[in-house]
Structures are given as C-alpha cells and as structure tokens.
Write a structure and sequence with these properties.
The chain is mainly α and about 170 residues long. Helices cover about 60% and strands about 0% of the residues.
Length: about 170
C-alpha cells in the first residue's frame, strides 16, 4: 500500500486530470495575458516530477528537452496539448515506480544525483510536488473560467475513491 503522502499526490493528479478533461486543444494553447497556457501547465508539472522522481530518484531522463519547453523561468511557450499529456502520463508512470517504494525512513532521506544532494528531504519534496499541483490546479480552473468553459468541477472530488479504493 502506498504511503499516505503518495496517495495524496495521486489524488492531486486525479483532480488535475478532472479539471482539464474535455478542454479543446485550441483552448489549451491559448495564453491569457501573462498567464501560461494549459498545455504548458501540464508539461510544467511533468517536468517537476521528472526532475524529482525520475532524474534525481532514479537517475533517468525521459524527456531531455522538457525543461527548456516548460521549465520555471523559461520563455513562454504553447506546447502541443496531446504531446504534453503523453509526456505527463509517461513521466508520472515512471515516477510512481519510485514513489510506490516510499516509507517513513525514505521520506526523511535526501535525494542525490551526480554528486548533488537536494536540500529538501524526499518528504518535503513530495509535499512541494503535491502543493505545486494544487497551485496550478487553481490556475487552470481560472483559465478555463476566463475561456468561458462551462460545467467545470466546483468542489474537490471523491477522496474515498483515490484514498481507500472505494467505488464512488
């Protein structure tokens, strides 16, 4: 069984997917003022997971140019919607192969890759990853509202389904 913090990450991811479902690809690439577009947000969250749970935790890089497309501080971009979802799915699946091994002792450890030791523990990095999803989830809701999308989720979804495997 996954650690409760990993379960919370899975829940944040599921809410992210729920928020963005049925978004037309042309709307996913629209930038409103200074805001990033929805396709960028998907790729950006994938990039964080790749950096933490694939590159530092497992020593692999699945998409070497992803950070240049959607990384913090990079120039604005409007990446392809379908491509960013495929990248996100691939990275989160690879991340889960590490995350599913976490226990309290590993959560206190610090990731190290190529001689670089991350300042934050695995547990703090996991919390940061969860909160990063919620930050961009709110942003994505606002973007969709500004785009005039209707029937958006208006409350946190079924926690029991994700947390306890119950049917909802």
């Amino acid at each position: 069984m996954a650690h409760p913090l990993v379960t919370q990450l899975h829940f944040a991811r599921s809410e992210f997917v729920r928020c963005l479902q049925d978004t037309p690809p042309e709307d996913a690439a629209r930038r409103l003022g200074q805001m990033n577009c929805l396709s960028w947000i998907v790729g950006h969250l994938a990039a964080q997971e790749q950096w933490l749970w694939v590159m530092h935790a497992q020593g692999k890089i699945l998409f070497p140019d992803l950070y240049l497309k959607v990384g913090y501080g990079q120039p604005p971009s409007t990446p392809d919607w379908a491509e960013m979802w495929q990248v996100w799915r691939t990275i989160t699946a690879a991340a889960d192969s590490y995350l599913d091994t976490l226990d309290p002792e590993l959560l206190r450890a610090h990731l190290e890759s190529k001689g670089i030791i991350l300042e934050e523990s695995v547990g703090v990095s996991l919390l940061r990853n969860i909160y990063h999803y919620w930050f961009h989830l709110g942003e994505a809701h606002a973007i969709r509202q500004m785009l005039g999308h209707q029937r958006l989720p208006d409350f946190v979804g079924n926690m029991a389904m994700v947390s306890y495997g119950e049917e909802g």
